[in-house]
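Provenance

Sequences were taken from public entries as deposited. Structures were produced by running a predictor on each sequence independently, with no templates supplied. The record for CUB domain-containing protein from Drosophila willistoni is shown for reference.
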Amino acid sequence: MLTWLVCVALSLVLATASPSPASSSAAGPGGSGPGKPANLQMGPASGSATGCSLAEFSCSNGRCVPLSKFCNNNNDCGDGSDEPRFCTRCNRTYYGDIGQTYALELHRPKQDRVPFVCVLTFTAAGGQHGDVVQVTLDSFTIGRFTSYVHEGCPDGYMQIAESARTPIGGMWCGSSWGPVLFYSETRSLIFTIKLNRLARDQSGYNFDFRIRYKVLSKDSSVTRYGGIKLAELAQWHNRSSFLNQQQQQQQQQHQQQQQHQQQQQGTGAALHEFTNSSGARSDRYGQDFSLFSAYANNKTFMDSLEKPLIKDELNYTEPKYYLGDLIPGTYCSRIFSDCDKKSCRLQSPNFPGIYPRNLTCYYAVRQHDVPHGKHALILVKQPKGNLVWISTQETAATNKMAPPPSASDKDKKFEPRLKTWNDCDYIQDYVTVYDGYTTRDPIILKFCGGGQAVPAAVSSGPELLVEFSTSPFGTFTGTSSQVLPLYGFQLEVEVQFVDIQSPTYSKNKKPCEFWIRGAGRGILENPKHSLAPNSTCLYHLQGMGVFKTFDHLSLSRRTNSQSGIHQPLSRFKVWISVLKFNLDPEFGQIDETSVGAIGVLQTQEDCSGMLRIWDGTLRDPPVCKDLNCISETSAYNSLGHYNHNSTNVIARFCRGTIPRTCDRSNINETYARPCTISESYVSSSDAITLELRNTESTVLRPLDFKLKYEFIDLHQDGLPMGGGEHDCNRKFLSNMMDRKDPAIFRSVRNIFLFGRGGTRNLKCVYKFEALRGERVRIKLRKVTTTNRPCYSRLDEDINRSFCYGDTNVRIEIFERPYQDSILLHRGCLCNSSNESHLPVEYTSTSRDVEVHFIAQNMTTLDDPDTVNFEGMFEFVKAPTSCKDGRRKFGPSGTIDMTFGDIECRSRPWLIEPSNGNKFLYVRLKAIFLSKHNPKKSLNSTFVQADSWRCETKSRAVLTTSEGLTIVACPLSPESSAYEFVEIFSSGWNERPNFALVNRSKAISVEFLRPGNGEYTFNWMELMPRPTLSMAEDCQYKCAELGACVNASVWCDGTVHCPSGDDEAFLQCSALMKLPAEILATLCLIFVLSCCAFAAFAYKKIKRKLRGSSVLQTRLKSLSSMDTAVLDEKERKIVVETKI
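Predicted structure for CUB domain-containing protein:
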């Protein structure tokens, strides 16, 4: 309760201005007729003459006393001028100054004065004299209260009226338990007190009237008009932000002690403190906040005031409220418009004080400005329960003769609680919310009471009507103002915008029906607006094609009936996965399933609100005798037991039941494991109907559900190649086409064939078969392979596309060059980032083409939207007619392009081994340009060739059965360049496990744009050499290839081995073929001849060497003689020189 009082204090700022000195004299105590202010006109004139203010009475001696002290049996003026003879307090107008509180009491009239009538007018004159009048009933007893609707005040009553408002005639009587507050909406409040009879004995005292009144400025009336400032909330900080639990307990004990001490003080001091407008007390709400003064001594609290405030839900600035436009001629009906730009508040008359009796107010809310493509919903709510209290107590009526309860009994019996529907019919004070602009629209909420948050009531359209009705008679018995200081209600208004095409609101209030048609998927939730009691909403989910169906294919009745082609009964099926279903407990009760950390499972089923799933189309809401609408034994049969036209319940969700759900997607919808079939529901036709039924208003008992729906598109272009609805292999036959113009074919869209549907690997084959003399033209214009890095590039030399990167998801083009031959790879496409070259077009050289749609290692992120393709196909006439056979077998061979038909030069050669255990080796004189290997992630090798090296535009394409493709620039046999391109069959490089590989060993050789070029290539069959060292090696082998070759390849005049060993002299000479004896004899003769020749040559050489040595001896002797002669001559010359 202490925390609740703090919240009340935070929402109010009191008028604390000190009274200014009187600058004008008060009006004289003149009288006026009933219902008319006595000094409303004469007051200002007299005040200006006497020097007293408008709120004061001018004494004869010149003193000024408050108007409330006139005729109070006290000589306040000192000269008795304020107590003239036969004076009365009735039929007068009372003013006040801001910051002052005035007391007023009416004495019990004498018997001869009955019937007693008294009119009191309280006016706020503006400026210093305030804008709003506050009147507090401290003690009230007028007659007896007997009924709320019929003659409820037989002895007397009090009526309250507003100036310039139409009188409504409601009456108050009986007694009050505590202070009761009234606030004016206009400048003046007019109280009319009438007592018809007095009690016959003193024990039945039936008249007591003591009040206090004051005037407030409009700026300080923040509860009604808003505009509270953040700075004003500094002293009301949230204690939890700076005090721990122990400090809070100590503070509460200290506060209780202070409060107890204040209660022990005299009544005069308490009255003065209560009437004084200070920062620690709010007279407006009857609350004592002086106990919070203990915070001034708390250092932590005082330090926090110096820090900048954080704008949160407890400390914030509220804007000025928009209270609507009063409808002319009405007392309280108002119109609100465009509350998305305003802070709209629906308030009871005279809020936050007591509202009048015998009135009906209409609050019409309408949203005019709606953004394009949006739909407006109006929401009214009040999350703060202390701002709502509508009379609902029955104490006074149920026990008319009982004595007034004690204070302790009052507090015990009072339990602030929001009541609804029939609980509000006794007093007949209630608020009704209509889903529309008239009272003929459905009622979505009816409540009274208070002390609890009012749940949000949301309209289904841009209009909402709130009706507030009160009974003609009322009493103040019931709640204590010390516990609940506010009366009436204040409702917040919000505007929500939803997509106009979304199934989040019902376009028609009756019936509530939604139609969802299409071929996609989405999330379906309960309506965003409130549903009236006993409502039923039907959701019709029906699959409908978005793409145009394949209408180029003509299926005659004879062909369809004889071939037994399987056609599904419906193109679509509906897949439902329920993520959440929740029905709150009855309003005001605790949810037993959420008590504690573990929770308690509810065992009793509650179907006050339920969701049923019907397999098929349900046109009207069903009228069922049981919850399942069928026998309990067959309620949960498998889907296969339903006929195509059946409409049966396949699931029912109620509070307390645990049907099939897939709630893990609520935690992380993107990365959660996809829902399986065992956790979902699949229709047997193209439609499912959801029935949402509630017996109570969803305002008080929310009914929430969330489910995923998906329309499974079973349509596939072309003809099936066998299997059922989950087989994606299709064929397109030229002889069954009505037209020969291009037609569209697309990838399969059945979600159960993809990763999100539970499938890891997928392979779909699209086979195109042309007639004789026709070719197939394929154009792939759209390819999507997201969630993996992969792109494709077009090789402009050969006009074919190849994939690079992660090729787990790809589209491949294959061609079957001859009947019963292998498929040859002709292209690959993937596109994960829109960087691939598209479109890609390929025209076949044969009649059979296949497009393979392959997806491997799929995850939950892969579905028909992320992995798909779209293309076009066309059967065209072949440009030439080739009759030359280009399918070759044998151990070896040589192909010469010089011979053969000119029309066949562009058709591929298919070289096949004689049996499956042999490999092929093809060798072509050409310049290597590039290689593409689809089995490797980095599947390409490029070598840039200079233009002078490749002078022709012709290209040779060598392809294996695996798709390994080598592009080369062919050279003529007369070319001086010694460059060759070679290729092996599939599996050759996978030795020694080649025996485990079961694949075709064929090789295709294709010349593109051959022209008149004279190109040749040769091939030979290979066998791998034995790997064991002790095994006998093959007789004919190419050592550099590590392969054994056929004997026919050896010495056939054509070089097959890269080193030329198969045509070497030692291998191919005729002498090597003689018998061994003759070869030995010839070798001996050859050796002897060589020896004889060597001996003869030795002798000759030796003879020559001997003659050369004699000559050298003679030359040496002659040389020595010449040297001696020369020495003598030199010696003689030296002597002569000395002389």
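The two ends are 154 Å apart (CA to CA).
Residues 296 and 302 are 7 Å apart (CA to CA).
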